[in-house]
Amino acid sequence: MPAPLRLTSQTWSTRVENRRQPELQVAASFLLGRGILVMTAKKNAVREVAALHQKALLMSASEIDRTLVRLAHEILEKNGGLTRLGLVGIRRRGVPLAERLGKIIQKVEKRPVPVGKLDITFYRDDLSTLGPKPVVQPGQVGFPIEGKNIVLIDDVLYTGRTIRAALDALFSHGRPSIVQLLVLIDRGHRELPIEATFVGRTVQTTNNEVIEVKMIEIDGTEKVLLMERT
To answer: What residue numbers bound the domain in which 40 lies?
Structure first.
């Protein structure tokens, strides 16, 4: 099997043009935000097949802040305070969400809560059969998770594949007492039986739509957009 094609916004065109597989149609999908652009490469030629336009503003910066305050209180209520509690953000935008929730909880409880992260990237191995497949990058969560109540945090819950990979990675670092999932946006279309314990907002979407979460720490701006492929 050929090595997975890993792409970034800076290197995708060079990588695709240098990939010598004329007998195959190689498709590369990379994320700017959460699915800004989709590209295909066939016989070393790259063309854009879909672009996105903004359909609606789902959340403003102030709405995100208020939602995180609510979610922080729900976490504390569900877990009975800070005892054994730990937050783990899924890179990229799950990490700043986890850090912000940790600060809100610390402000309420007057003591810190452990905050860690998992690094997961995407590649397309066999586009026609597998689609986007999450890959966990090596690295430590950042604190011992054995016996803890872990809240796993991501920005958007879609098919559930990312969460499945994150759970596998999490349990490779130890055995938590319980794992709860928190997402800012649940957009439906699950392919696996995975549901979130804490949800900022549920948004009904079509497969032609994309949820784009922008965080000030990563994007320099703060909002949640509903985008549509054209």
So the answer is: 12-50
